Amino acid sequence: MTTVFVAGANGQTGRRIVSKLVEAGYDVRGLVRKEDHLRDLESTGAKGYLGDLSGAFSDGMKGADIVVCAAGAGTSGDPEHVDHVGTVRLIEQSVLEQIPRFVLISSMGTKDPDAMPSFLKPFLMAKRKAETILEESGLSYTIIRPGGLTNEPGKGKVHAAPELQRHGRVSRDDVAAAVLAALQIRQTHNQSFDLLEGDTPVEEALKGLNGSVPQ
Fold first, then answer.
1. What is the pLDDT of residue 211?
2. Which sequence ranges are marked TM in the entry (predicted)?
3. Which end is more exposed in the chain, N or C (fewer Cβ atoms within 10 Å of the end residue's Cβ)?
């Protein structure tokens, strides 16, 4: 059974990712920051670990096959602390633990933060720093850059491309579906892509990407 470690497992997107992975038969370990979140996480069938990216968090990573980072500062936290430094710590620990696969939930706009609303710029710049470290880490990576996240039910259809020439929204459900598909579709290896709601089934959209497939 493939073991997946999910950082940010109690976040709005992280919870959906955990549920999708458990339903698909993965052995899921989730990192949460508060003890009362452990019960919620473990009720889904995942195993919970208490910690955060600024402190101790590596216990659940031992023996894992894949790391998914769904942690983020949101719009009220410290982006440098979480989206940059914390995520880089997770990437570095993945290298140390020899975990070969890393999926990062980032954001559209990281490559051109000046084109986005000014209040988002610090968050996008911090996320881009982490993306760059991941791209240079030697890990087999997938960077998913969703548009504006919604809590609407997923439709299972998206628009995915290395760079979309428009902005828009995408449901957290469909982001979680994209994470699951990324673990199963080799075209997503060493690939970064934008993700918006669209009219193409998730798996088909991701198979249309031209990733670098490991030998």
1. 52
2. none
3. C
